[in-house]
Amino acid sequence: MHTKIKAMKMLIGGKWVSAEETFEVRDPQDNEVIARVPLASKQDMTFAIEEAERTYRNTQVWPTHERIAILNRVANYIKEHAEEFAQLIASEGSKTINEARGEVKRTTQTIQISAEEARRMNGETINFDQSEGSENRIGYQYRFPVGVIGAITPFNDPLNLVAHKIGPAIASGNAIVVKPASVTPLSALKLAEAFVESGLPEGFLSVVTGSGRELGDTLVTHSSVKMISFTGGPNAGEKITQKAGAKKISMELGSNSPVIVLKDADLHDAVQSSVSGAFSAVGQNCIGVQRIYVEREIYSTFLDTFVNRTAELIVGDKMDELTDVGPMIEQREAERVEAWVNEAVTDGAKIEVGGKRQGVYYYPTVLTNVPATAKIAKEEIFGPVVLIQPVEDLSQAVEQANDVDYGLQAGIFTSNIHHAFYTIKHMNVGGVMINDSSDYRIDAMPFGGTKGSGVGREGVRYAMESMTESKVVCFRLQENML
């Protein structure tokens, strides 16, 4: 049991401040209050944005080597406090302690990559003399920061997804105001602490805690905010695009990720990878495996093996190192998943394993015979449920995999290079993982999707590109001046 409720402050303009009102952060596993956090007002958010703008405008020179040094110190701070970060992630969220430790490790890498990419954010020379009449012109283009970035982050990766906003923003010389998920703000505040302790100049980072409904519009519509970086659901993303106006926007809006398993695949490897991809982080994962299409000749064997492996997963106390699957983020989310599964069963789906809710826990569930029109087949479940169905061949698998309004990542298991390249060419997604499930990502790669899965790409270098503008410089040389 938790023995002490933490009284937290938020970071605004480089200062740790309280608010007149607070809200409770609860451990989803037992609903116990673990912290009280400032409930920021619209005025607080406005002040944070104005301080970010003032700081950015008043900083005439912020050398690259200083940004690199700060980011490296942040990475070291995270390493030195790794278990503290992990305990915090696991306490406020759904991840098991082992999953939380993995997120801390990834966050360290994200910040380290940000430091490295700050060094490599270069421009390029332009051959103006390629155009007739421009023989006496030379020049180049370079990138400069947009100014103030507004970031909105979700609960499922409460540390690393925040790092994916702050790290590239600081690396490219921007100021940033972060609104973390209300159910998991503690990891974001701890990361802010790391930046403060590492010498980040005041004003370049604010972490404003509170209600998205109260704060979101101010962050999105304020004229000083030049870019919005959002990770969350498609409904919220659509509203942001309507309200933001003439701002740069980067959005990752989730998925309904498919995996294809062909008869020439390593079946054991496909099962192991796909079980992990479907049920890690309780399925609350934007690239988690939701649909699996299996070539009919191996369908029965694959299904039996998959179901048996799923049944072996240990559901329970997320702080127990033996636990595979912890609680969902809130009981209402577990109830939503339960309702979606029950709706599919009513329409003819069959539960092969799982299909049980116990309070905030929803047990890993495998469904077959799910109608293509079912909500659970079309939308993002964001829970520990996977659909498995047979297909006649790769062409049919790809066609069915594409038949949703999402396109973040996909996976295919095959030993045939031609099958792999067919999938690469015809799958309408942002990333295709060969002999991996859809649930594979490194923090340096471009990450984003097609269709309803979002706009733009994250991954440190690619986020930095979106957080900067290109300026062209051209010199006209006058020979008679020599």
From TrEMBL:
This protein's record includes keyword Lipid biosynthesis: no
InterPro entries found in the cross-reference section: Ald_DH/histidinol_DH, Ald_DH_C, Ald_DH_N, Aldehyde_DH_dom, ALDH-related_metabolic_enz
SUPFAM superfamilies: ALDH-like (SSF53720)
Record keywords: Oxidoreductase
Gene3D superfamilies the UniProt entry points to: Aldehyde Dehydrogenase, Chain A, domain 1, Aldehyde Dehydrogenase, Chain A, domain 2
Keyword Iron-sulfur applies: no
Signal peptide location: none
Chain ranges of the Aldehyde dehydrogenase domain: 16-473
Pfam families: Aldedh
Family: Belongs to the aldehyde dehydrogenase family.
Record's protein name: Aldehyde dehydrogenase family protein
Classification lineage: Bacteria, Bacillati, Bacillota, Bacilli, Bacillales
